[in-house]
Amino acid sequence: MAQRLFVAHGFDETSVEDIATAAGISRRTFFRYFSVKADVCFADSPTELVRLQQALSAADPHESYRLVIVRAVVAALRFPPGEREWAWQRAQLVLEVPVLQAHATRIYAQWRKAAAEFARGRRPDDDVFPVVVGHAVLAGTLAAHEYWITHPASGLDDALVRMLDLLLPPEPPAP
Hints:
This protein is mostly helical. It folds into two domains: 1-40, Arc Repressor Mutant, subunit A, CATH 1.10.10; 44-167, Orthogonal Bundle (Tetracycline Repressor, domain 2). The chain is 70% helix and 0% strand. The protein is built from nine helices and no strands. It has helices spanning 2-9, 16-23, 27-33, 45-57, 65-77, 84-96, 98-122, 128-150, 156-167. It starts with a helix and ends in an 8-residue tail after the last helix.
């Protein structure tokens, strides 16, 4: 509901009162669920992060780290078919609205950390590798979403695979 208002009228132009009225709730009820208006666009972020962390921690330690990362990111960001429009609009808003971009930095840091911790376990004596993997995952997810919103007929899963394949560093040498 709120997201449709943001798309139709603009994020800054849509008030909490507009959202509450459209949802048939009071402002007070809105603030029971969301601290600020921007939180509406990130309601699924904690669940997505948990899915990423679980997929990374469940990985076979002998499997290619790149395959694990790609599979985990795709699974974490996968949405049900009936929510494609919602996911596309969310990506568009987050990539285009400065307030949402700023709000997203906290989520981005959590994703970088999850990917870096996983990579550290794969190459514990290399301080650079985990940092690079964390940033590659973030860059890949952002690039995939940017590509997807400019090519709406494409699929996010495919864009994620392509971008991560281009950005993830080579497989570390076997110990």
